[in-house]
From TrEMBL, chain A:
Residues 18-152 form the DUF1468 domain. The chain crosses the membrane at residues 14-32, 53-75, 87-113, 125-143. InterPro entries: DUF1468 (IPR009936). It holds the Pfam family TctB. It comes from Devosia nitrariae. This is C4-dicarboxylate ABC transporter. It comes from the Bacteria. Keywords: Membrane, Transmembrane, Transmembrane helix.
UniProtKB/TrEMBL annotation, chain B:
Keywords: Membrane, Transmembrane, Transmembrane helix. It comes from the Bacteria. The keyword Oxidoreductase does not apply. The chain crosses the membrane at residues 20-49, 61-82, 109-135, 147-163, 169-186, 316-335, 355-379, 391-411, 417-436, 443-460, 472-497. Pfam families: TctA. Residues 20-447 form the DUF112 domain. The keyword Flavoprotein does not apply. This is Tripartite tricarboxylate transporter TctA.
Length: 174, 514
């Protein structure tokens, strides 16, 4: 079940080599960005660039050590994960991010809710989507109205709040 | 004024109705997240940071501490009844506790865990109250170089000392340190690594990183796991009360667990999971019934549960007196202090004495509340375990994004597209959290690196400014030398043990989440 190298095979661990490359790129980006900074002479010796250089050096050393570790196959054994559920959940997060401002908090978060539930095998959207939107609207009421947290308001929130307002006014008038 | 008077004054403040309400909310939430698998106290405090922004500082901090204590209580319930630890410090509890539950002794197992947690919480909080002033007196003489050495020690113990690989621990730490570089440099006002994105000028939000790594990373890992384990919730059969025999076998374990857990939390030597594991080994060797271990020995529940609560209290010693977080939860609580413009450390005890002592005293109150919440109301918490996974994780992700949007609700526009940049970061860090888990990297060092990194940088630059750039100042004071020596031992001893084939023990001691 392992797709990486184990101690038994001592095959270089490809994924671990990729991690090493990413760490090296990260170190290079920090070096490059820091060298572009204009530093006032007063801070020439110890200034805003000192710590970034230390961190970048550390990352570079760790990248080399990761290569060694990958070649020796000393990363822990991994199971083969199913990526299907991940696409549902990441799709949900992406949908929420894009829907948040046009559609408001409740609809966007309701979509995230339904897609996450789908990732865990519950694909009956006619049930999970309304449940998610209702749940998110309750959260919105408590946190945006009650605790003054700034959560984006969309057409659904405005409509429901003004409907409640009209209801309260008519009850008050009667 | 003596410690005792200060503590009494703190108790008076803690008994104010609003503070009692905050403590109650904290312990209730804490127990709930402790019970639910997949979310722990670190995540919950992170979620609440933006929510509490407008609330009273003392009340919010009391609530955070209540969540920390509550999480330690709640985790045991899941371990005992489900054999899946609710949070990482309760892994050991599952060994004996779940066996007891299967044998129909779930009630006494839950009771010894709850009473043990209470005893440990009480003793450890009093120890915290009496030790903290001493540490403060000592720490007031610390210079920037000493603080820097202290932070280096914390970095090493959080990342490299425990867990199964120093390389992966340090890598996680440096990812956190790199993320901590992003934003405007406080001393010169220059932006670093922001790539011209305005949302990055203030740096990476602690809430966003912690929520992404803990909630989204964990959700992805569970959703993608190839086999879904058959999980069986054991019903609590029979009496929840312990027999006289149970009491006799538990009390010494509670005390041993307390005195193992507190120092481990107080010295930056790892989190509650390390404490509970050591306590379990101690109980195994001290027990008069060693043959029962593995089949449901009550000592194996009593000791570790006391130890993890005592270590939670111990963690507050370096956090409050030195401003030094040694676990992920403590790191996020530090961010909570900073959100209110408070800087934990010796000066906090001087400038905000009433707040500190109200916080410490309210821990005693919270501890009592937890005993009441956990023993008679155990049935309510067990219900939480029966929520089906799709609904549970859908709910967790909805709440997770709530905190992130609350932390920064700014709109970013690229072309005609309007979206939340903070949610994009959340998505990216969520994938990072999944990858870290998949390849066996610990999560806590990333969070600690993000929060402690900028503080370490400030102390380093302050020290070097005093010496006009001469690095020798870093090793000039005896305090710093001692700290570096301990850090070197913490780094090298595990390497040596691993070479000698003792690495598995360290792997089991992994300081993971909370």
């Amino acid at each position: 079940m392992t797709d990486g190298g184990t101690n038994a095979t001592r095959r270089p661990d490809g994924a671990a080599l990729v991690i090493a490359v990413v760490l090296a790129i990260l170190a290079a980006v920090i070096f490059w960005q820091t060298s572009q900074m204009r530093v006032v002479a007063v801070y020439a010796r110890v200034g805003p660039t000192t710590f970034p250089y230390i961190v970048a050096t550390g990352l570079a050393v760790l990248a080399v050590a990761t290569v060694v570790s990958a070649l020796r196959g000393s990363f822990p054994a991994r199971d083969k994960d199913n990526y299907g559920p991940m696409f549902w959940i990441l799709g949900g997060l992406l949908a929420q991010m894009l829907l948040l401002f046009p559609a408001g908090f409740s609809i966007a978060t309701g979509v995230l809710f339904a897609l996450t539930a789908a990732g865990f095998g519950r694909r009956r959207f006619w049930m999970t989507l309304p449940a998610g939107i209702a749940f998110a609207f309750v959260i919105w009421l408590i946190f945006a109205r009650g605790l003054q947290l700034s959560l984006p308001t969309g057409p659904l929130e405005s409509a429901l709040v003004s409907a409640f307002g009209a209801l309260a006014a008519s009850v008050g008038a009667a | 004024m003596g410690t005792f008077d200060l503590l009494l004054q703190g108790l008076l403040a803690a008994m104010e109705p609003m503070n009692l309400v905050y403590a109650l909310i904290g312990v209730t939430l804490g127990t709930a997240v402790g019970v639910l698998p997949g979310i722990g106290p670190a995540l919950t405090v992170a979620l609440l940071l933006p929510v509490t922004y407008r609330l009273d500082p003392a009340g919010s901090l009391i609530m955070f501490a209540g969540i920390y204590y509550g999480g330690m209580y709640g985790g045991s319930t899941t371990s005992i009844l489900l054999n899946t630890p609710g949070e990482s410090a309760s892994i050991v509890t599952a060994l004996e506790g779940n066996r007891m539950a299967r044998a129909g002794r779930g009630g006494p197992a839950l009771a010894t865990a709850a009473i043990g947690s209470f005893v440990a919480g009480l003793i450890a909080t009093l120890l915290l109250a009496f030790i903290a002033p001493w540490v403060v007196r000592f720490a007031l003489s610390f210079g920037p170089a000493d603080y820097f050495a202290l932070m280096v020690l914390a970095f090493i113990t959080v990342s490299a000392a425990f867990g199964d690989s120093a390389l992966r621990g340090l890598t996680a730490l440096f990812i956190g340190l790199a993320l901590g570089l992003i934003g405007i440099d406080l001393q010169t006002g220059q932006t670093r690594l922001a790539f011209g994105i305005p949302d990055l000028f203030d740096g990476i939000e602690v809430t966003t990183l912690a929520v992404a790594l803990f909630a989204i990373g964990e959700t992805l890992k569970i959703a993608c796991a190839p086999t879904h384990l058959q999980e069986q919730v054991e019903a609590v059969k029979g009496s929840v009360w312990m027999t006289i025999e149970d009491w006799k076998r538990s009390w010494a374990s509670w005390l041993r667990g307390t005195f193992i857990g507190f120092p481990i939390g107080a010295m930056p030597a790892g989190g509650a999971d390390v404490a509970s594991f050591l306590s379990y080994s101690a109980e195994k060797s001290f027990s008069k019934h060693p043959e029962e271990f593995g089949t449901g020995a009550i000592e194996g529940v009593a000791g570790p549960e006391a130890a993890n609560n005592a270590s939670a209290a111990g963690t507050l010693v370096p956090l409050l007196t030195l401003g030094l977080p040694t676990t992920a939860t403590a790191a996020i609580m530090l961010a909570g202090f900073q959100q209110f413009g408070l800087q934990p450390g010796p000066l906090l005890f001087v400038n905000n004495a009433s707040l500190v002592w109200a916080l410490i005293a309210s821990l005693l109150v919270a501890n009592l509340m937890l005993l009441v919440l956990n023993l008679p109301l155990i049935g309510v918490w067990v219900r939480l375990l029966t929520i089906p996974k799709p609904w549970l994780y859908a709910g967790i992700l909805s709440f997770a994004t709530l905190g992130t949007i609350g932390a920064n609700a700014a709109v970013m526009r690229i072309g005609g597209l309007a979206f939340s940049f903070e949610l994009l970061l959340l998505l990216a860090f969520g994938v990072l959290g999944y990858l870290l888990r998949r390849f066996g990297y610990p999560i806590a060092p990333v969070v600690v690196g993000l929060i402690l990194g900028p503080m370490a940088e400030q102390q380093l630059r302050r020290a070097l400014a005093i010496s006009q750039g001469d690095p020798a100042i870093l090793f000039a004071s005896p305090v710093a030398m001692v700290l570096y020596t301990v850090a070197a031992i913490a780094l090298l001893l595990p390497l040596f043990l691993r070479l000698r084939g003792r690495g598995q023990l360290l792997g089991q001691l992994a300081t993971d989440e909370d």
